[in-house]
């Protein structure tokens, strides 16, 4: 009941005229940026983060929630219409959505995605309301060894499921951890990797890292591979679903959240694994298996619902533990820190108005997303007619403005370009970007918790595994690392038998 009463109070905050206006602006801006080719929610949120700097915290995060959900739907639109996923979570939408669009059913695919986002987000946010305070109470008892174990799990899980190999994932993580070391040592005050430059003593802002790796890196990559000649845009038409479409999609819409939310809520969760699991599940349960690969609407509805619920799940670990498990959550954590607010177990006690206003705004944002984007889908499609050279020139401009707004220093633009070139190189050699961003955010915290745990145990390594919780997490890590080898052994034994 306490959660319900707090949520009602949150709606009182979220539904004030000014906060409702920020939510509408957030949904529109998020969708407008997210719908552009090659831009996913993480890049959209990073680009628009400076827009919220002048607002008071509650209004800023309500606008942020609108940007988050709007960008997610925008990324799916790009994936369906142009077969250009803005992020890994939108890859599955392209598998069935793009064939649907090519066959003239793009409107149905977009409608299935929009309603899927609404359903998944609604159920996921309800689970967030029910579980987040409980997780926060349990998290109060978590000590330094436990936090360090969770962060190691985050590092291992993220590097294991992304990219073409674990080695590339670990290489990306190492790049992020190295960037995270730049600045002053939090305990000794010693400068690290600053090369004598006082501007680097405060470290590299995560917004600059995110914008550089995502926006600049993607723009340089597209520029290097841009083909001459424009391709004809795919017509969208009016978004609507027939009775047969609804009959085929309502179960995937309801199944998706229960696959997506748990993966988002656990540290090192995300939307990549649950969207693929949802796709496989719908393919197995569907009566129209022959359509899969050619434009099965279930293959859009289920994964999109799972992705939206996963987004709600990521807020559980971010708000209650202060752990960003996706690039978007990492940028959101940076936004909290800009206001001097530290997410964690005590956040629900210290900032109840902000937290519950934010959660209530997620419901408001979902309704606005559905109401605005179903009729506006053809308008977003027209944005895709912008020639790519102009499109990515605009991205570079807004990325530069956003980076300069963070600190007001010209050196930030140089750092942005260097990190952008790094992002281009990572794409060239197949290194996933997300582990690097997670490394930048969690690296300093992991180092701090490691030092605390070792200080408590007088330097003994056993101090890292002296609690049941940390031992459990390390067992999970061992299973994650050993699973591919065990899987290969099982396959070999079956082949020999």
How does the helix and strand content classify structurally?
A: mainly alpha
Helix content: over 70%
Give the overall shape, derived from the CA principal axes.
globular
- Total count of helical runs of at least 4 residues: 19
From N to C, what is the helix and strand string? HHHHHHHHEEHHHHHHHHHHH
Placed side by side, the strands forming the largest sheet appear as: 1-2
Descriptive report:
It is a single chain. With 497 residues, this protein is an all-alpha fold. It has a domain at 2-143 and 217-410. It contains 19 helices and two strands. Strand 1 (183-184) and strand 2 (191-192) form a beta hairpin. The longest helix is centred in the first third of the chain and has 34 residues, at 106-139. The protein is globular and about 65 Å long. The mean pLDDT is 76.
Describe the SSE topology.
Blueprint: H1 2-14, H2 17-34, H3 41-48, H4 57-82, H5 91-102, H6 106-139, H7 144-161, H8 166-181, E1 183-184, E2 191-192, H9 206-225, H10 243-265, H11 272-285, H12 298-321, H13 327-338, H14 347-350, H15 352-383, H16 388-407, H17 410-428, H18 434-456, H19 468-496
Antiparallel strand pairs: 1-2
Keywords: Membrane, Transmembrane, Transmembrane helix
Pfam families: TctA (PF01970)
Transmembrane segments: 20-49, 61-82, 109-132, 144-163, 169-188, 200-223, 315-336, 356-377, 389-407, 463-486
């Amino acid at each position: 009941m306490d959660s319900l009463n707090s949520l009602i109070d949150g709606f009182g905050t979220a539904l004030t005229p000014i906060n409702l206006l920020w939510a509408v602006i957030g949904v529109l801006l998020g969708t407008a940026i997210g719908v552009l080719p090659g831009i996913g929610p993480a890049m959209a949120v990073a680009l628009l983060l400076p827009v919220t700097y002048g607002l008071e915290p509650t209004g800023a995060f309500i606008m942020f929630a609108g940007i988050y959900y709007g960008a997610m739907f925008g990324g799916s639109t790009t994936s369906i219409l142009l077969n250009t996923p803005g992020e890994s979570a939108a890859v599955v939408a392209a598998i069935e959505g793009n064939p649907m669009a090519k066959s003239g059913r793009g409107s149905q695919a977009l409608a299935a995605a929009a309603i899927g986002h609404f359903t998944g987000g609604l159920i996921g946010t309800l689970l967030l309301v029910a579980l987040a305070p409980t997780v926060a109470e349990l998290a109060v008892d978590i000590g330094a060894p436990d936090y360090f174990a969770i962060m190691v799990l985050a590092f291992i899980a993220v590097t294991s499921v992304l990219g073409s190999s674990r080695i590339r994932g670990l290489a990306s993580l190492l790049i992020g951890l190295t960037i995270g070391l730049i600045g002053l040592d939090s305990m000794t005050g010693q400068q690290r990797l600053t090369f004598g430059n006082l501007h680097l003593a405060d470290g590299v802002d995560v917004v600059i890292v995110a914008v550089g790796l995502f926006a600049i890196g993607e723009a340089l990559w597209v520029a290097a591979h841009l083909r001459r000649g424009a391709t004809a845009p795919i017509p969208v038409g009016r978004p609507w679903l027939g009775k047969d479409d609804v009959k085929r999609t309502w179960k995937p819409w309801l199944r998706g959240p229960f696959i997506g939310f748990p993966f988002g809520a656990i540290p090192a969760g995300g939307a990549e694994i649950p969207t693929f699991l949802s796709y496989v599940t719908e393919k197995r349960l569907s009566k129209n298996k022959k359509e899969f690969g050619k434009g099965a609407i279930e293959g859009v509805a289920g994964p999109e619902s799972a992705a939206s619920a996963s987004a709600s799940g990521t807020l559980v670990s971010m708000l209650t533990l202060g752990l960003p498990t996706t690039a978007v959550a990492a940028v959101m954590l940076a936004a909290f820190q800009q206001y001097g607010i530290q997410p964690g177990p005590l956040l629900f006690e210290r900032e109840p108005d902000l937290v519950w206003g934010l959660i209530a705004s997620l419901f408001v944002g979902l309704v606005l997303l559905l109401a605005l984007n179903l009729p506006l889908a053809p308008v977003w499609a027209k944005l895709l007619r912008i020639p790519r050279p102009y499109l990515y020139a605009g991205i570079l401009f807004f990325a530069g403005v956003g980076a300069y707004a963070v600190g007001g220093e010209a050196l930030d633009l140089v750092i942005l370009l260097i990190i952008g070139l790094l992002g281009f190189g990572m794409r060239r050699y197949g290194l996933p970007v997300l582990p690097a961003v997670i490394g930048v955010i969690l690296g300093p915290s992991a180092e701090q918790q490691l030092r605390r745990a070792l200080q408590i145990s007088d330097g003994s390594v056993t101090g890292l595994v002296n609690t049941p919780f940390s031992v459990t997490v390390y067992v999970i890590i061992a299973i994650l690392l050993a699973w591919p080898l065990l899987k290969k052994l099982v396959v070999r034994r079956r082949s020999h038998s």
